[in-house]
Amino acid sequence: MQKEFDAAYFDGLLKNNKASKKQVAVYLDDLKLERIDMITRLFSSISDSKSFARNTLIEDAVDKYIEEASAFLRDEHGIDVGALIAASRYEKYDTVILSANGRGFEDTFLGESEPMCWYPCRISNERENNLRHIAIYRGQPISAITHYAVIKEFKHDPERGYKVCFFEGGPIELPNKITLGDKDSCFFIGAKYTKLEYLLNATTADDIQFC
User: Fold this and answer.
1) pLDDT the model gives residue 167
2) What's the domain count of the chain?
3) Nearest Cα to 56, choosing from 69, 65, 46, 43?
């Protein structure tokens, strides 16, 4: 019986260019290398759009394996590889930075007119589960991040219609006021995620790594 193959995959391989990737070492026996080199030469001879290198075929084979293995794990075992990778990446970023204008920071974050908290917190549940700290970028005339707080919990407020972040203890002043640096004043519109260690060592937003 003739073995089936994915013609669409090979057609796409002949036509499409791939984005650059990081270099890694792959060890293959002599027979595999000989067959890959032969296939590489043959693909180059029949392609109208590009020539092939050995790494091209190896990279595409890895891409295809990842795609099919991920589909197998999802369909047969209910495991979402993408979600696991995202969760692993997110858990390293324990701090969310939101923004405030006017008296919102003093009245709410510093607790001058109500219990210390922050809202609205437009944060996904996936992100929320990994967050331990919250900081606020204060608009003009401050134009800086000056404080952070330890997160106690997030709660949905049905009256306000959004999520509220309640603190564990009071706000903590950062060692340095973190200004915008070379970033635009609109940069902190929407949630930004980072690590507390970056905030503790930064003097401008350019010093912070975001995710």
Assistant:
1) 95
2) 2
3) 43
> Is 32 a domain residue?
yes
CA distance 193 to 89: 11
Full residue range of the structural domain in which residue 30 is found: 8-13+22-79
Does residue 38 lie in a domain region? yes
pLDDT for residue 185: 82
87 in a domain, yes or no?
Answer: no
Name residues whose C-beta falls within 8 Å of residue 116's C-beta, 6 or more positions apart in sequence. Answer: 108, 109, 110, 149, 166, 167, 170, 171
Residue with tokens 């549940």: 125
Q: What is the pLDDT of residues 134-188, one digit of tens each?
A: 999 999 999 999 999 999 999 999 888 889 999 999 999 999 999 999 998 899 9
CATH number at residue 197: 3.10.590
Structure tokens at 165: 């972040």
Q: What is the pLDDT of residue 86?
A: 67
The share of the chain scoring above pLDDT 90, in percent, equals: 41
CA dist list (Å): 55 to 25, 65, 97, 131, 191:
11, 15, 41, 40, 39
Q: How far apart are CA 209 and CA 26, in angstroms?
A: 31
Residue 178: closest CA among 108, 116, 95, 77:
95
